[in-house]
Amino acid sequence: MDGEIKKIVFTPSLFYHYSICPHWIWNDIYGDPEKKKEISEFTSKILEEGVLHEEKYIQGLDAVKIETKDVAEGFKETLKHMKKGAPLIYQGSIQAEIDGVQFRGRPDLLEKHDGKSQFGNWFYAPVDIKSSRELKPEHLMQLALYGMILERIQNFFPEEVSIINRDFTHVRHILTLLDRDKTKKKINDILAVIRGAKPPLTLTSACHNSNPWWGECLKEAVEKNDLALIYNFNSKAFDDLRANGINTVADLAHADLSLLPKIRFASPEVLDKKRMQAKALIEKKVIRLSSIEMPEAPLKIFFDIEGDPFLNVEYLFGFWISEAGRDPYYKYFLAEKPEEEGKMWQEFLLWVKNLPENYKVYHYHHYESVKLKQLGERYSRIPELQIFENSMFDMAKMVMESVIFPVYFYSIKDIAKYLGFSWRHEKAGGAQSILWYEEWLEKKDRGVLEDVIKYNEDDVRATEFLYEWLKNPQNNK
Fold this sequence. Notes:
single chain, globular, 18 helices, six-stranded mixed sheet, alpha/beta, Nucleotidyltransferase, domain 5, DNA polymerase, domain 1, Lambda Exonuclease, Chain A
């Protein structure tokens, strides 16, 4: 690590905070603590699920558990068991000073392996218990950091590390020199922020959903008219534009793109589209890039699925149905408890089987298509389901290709709200729907279940609202 740094304690949680938003770390140190919000209920739920997953895995596991939360005592206790050669240590506390920085961590498990270390004919490798299925970049860096600390403790770097995933499967990985170099670079990036180097602004959905400083990030970006307000742009492209003097939305809107060098992850076509997005934000108006040809049918079905990733269940299929000669109406299929998902699926298939020949299904983004395929594989398929799937039209693709909205995010809620649609519940959102569903399962309050249903109805009505707006070429709010 570079530089002489004193009294800095580096823990693996910093990798997570940095991956969500580097400003999380900066604001924790230099920001006004009064402006920091509580983490969202949904983020709390994710953390809670991780703890429950870990507790479930370790039940009955034959491991030495380090009970104390005191860092010094925990480290002393962990070293004692490492020296004794305990096969498995749970919640061991490890630490080492490297280049003036105190690195600390508590790997979920320290696993004994045959080999040479200062302890004898064995060494320890870190294992973390994660609720995801795959090894994510921040997991890898966390494990590499544990390896670097363990190298100082046992005079041996454990190259093979692993996570226990949500299916309780060991996902193993051999740490390469490239992995270690990337981890060291990320550590130095984080240390620079800790020292006071304020990172460039980035407004991502992860920051929006999980960063307790999101409000401050957005406020600063708006006040500065910062380039970060441009939607869905690669961070390296941002870096290159800033290096060429383009720091604000106005800078991009008025830039002569032909004078720019090659911008990473941004073709000339992408840059031109982002320039138009900047103009849309400045002028607060919609820009239509091309004519929109929406598929038509006598029967129009607007479709949205609500699912719970923690329980691995799709619990509500909702439809807003518009057909000639009849007022539009809402129809839904509901699994009031997770084990009724299969029953809900069969009810849905029976309905699909009796649909008329000529219809179109409109949805926003790919979630519905993916889940229909998964549920068909999980339960059963009928020939009419393929007809239903072939009739589906993803309006998000049409929006991305044909229209630029003056909004910071392109979810159905951001766009429909901009166009004038409103949801009945102030907390309405996909994450909130999951929290409501789980509250219903726990408390059996039908009022809460009604909130789930009403939210889904508003979602499919918003999809129709957007459809009607898109098909009218005169609409240019």
